[in-house]
Specification:
Layout lengths: L1 H24 L3 E7 L4 E7 L5 E6 L4 E6 L7 E9 L6 E8 L2 E7 L3 E4 L2 H22 L5 H18 L4 H10 L5 H11 L2
Parallel strand pairs: 1-7
Antiparallel strand pairs: 1-4, 2-3, 2-5, 5-6, 7-8
Protein name: DUF4369 domain-containing protein
Organism: Bacteroides cellulosilyticus
């Protein structure tokens, strides 16, 4: 009898342990973040319409946001912060909401990892910074040349992500910088 009680106890512990581990790795989107800027005390996760999905206090530079439940159609949301002392000091960071755990570090450099679409967002942000740095380093560049460089850049980024939520995000937020021909090409390939 004592053997059966011990065995039953082990089974109950194993079931509990399995259930807890499935909860932490199951469906839903978990964002574990670190923020090195001390002026931001609260973090918000908002959708495209600025509806709040989640929010939390920043404690010791760390924050945790989530969208519970299975994410059947990934999308890009925004991690938004407003400085406590100056409401005009705001920081926004795109993040793909998809099943999994995302790691975000916001400081002098941005780190974003954990899911495939967030890797794509990080690649886009890095390429955008590289493009900006390239334009700034040029001398005697005309405004028309700058517009053409950015139009080509955004077209390439949108089309390389045309089958996912990152492409939609880039088009929605940066598509205004496309020239007429590039915009037509993008619309034709995206089916808009």
């Amino acid at each position: 009898m004592k053997k059966y009680i011990s065995l039953l106890s082990l089974v109950v512990i194993a079931i509990g342990w399995t259930a807890c581990s499935e909860t932490s790795n199951g469906p839903g989107c978990r964002i574990k973040g670190y923020l090195s800027f001390k002026e931001y005390k609260k973090v918000y996760l908002t959708d495209n319409s600025e509806n709040r999905i989640d929010s939390c206090e920043v404690k010791d530079g760390r924050f945790y946001l989530e969208e519970k439940g299975n994410i059947s159609e990934p999308y890009v949301a925004i991690i938004h912060m407003t400085a406590e002392q100056d409401s005009t000091d705001q920081l926004d960071m795109p993040v793909a909401i998809e099943n999994g755990t995302i790691k975000v570090e916001l400081g002098e450099y941005i780190k974003l990892s954990g899911t495939p679409l967030n890797t794509r967002i990080k690649e886009f942000l890095d390429a955008l910074q590289h493009c900006k740095d390239g334009v700034v380093s040029k001398t005697d560049i005309t405004p028309e040349e700058i517009s053409e460089i950015f139009s080509q850049f955004y077209k390439q980024q949108i089309l390389s992500n045309k089958d996912n939520a990152v492409g939609e995000y880039i088009y929605r937020n940066y598509g205004v910088h496309l020239n007429t021909d590039d915009n037509k090409q993008v619309k034709a390939q995206m089916g808009n």
